[in-house]
């Protein structure tokens, strides 16, 4: 019975770190795309989405939020921050996933602390930006933290 629980926990752990690895890779790719995409392409995309009623009424709440986000993104240091944040966040995740997949025991507490910092930041940003997605990502990170700590305890017991 204990062997089955370990196997199930191991499977969930592997799935969780695979999701984190995919997320990290997508963030790195997104950062590279954002770094090289011209401002005119971003504003053109926003204009096309709004004028084609893809978000409903062009003067509606979603359209206004998209327009505001685009303006904030294109002016000031928002684009630079987004590129730097996505690149750093993605590379950190990929490094942690690599270490966890290799079962480097010292990486487990580090991963839990880094993921906890991500949760705090995601919640902070969600409160300030009213993001719908960030609380979901924070909850996913909490689940992954629990799985990382469970796997860490099992590795420590086996050693």
UniProtKB/TrEMBL annotation:
Q: Which residues cross the membrane?
A: 82-100, 107-124, 130-149
Give the keywords, sorted: Membrane, Transmembrane, Transmembrane helix
Under the heading Pfam families, the entry gives:
DUF2127
Q: What is the protein's given name?
A: DUF2127 domain-containing protein
The protein's organism comes out as Amycolatopsis melonis
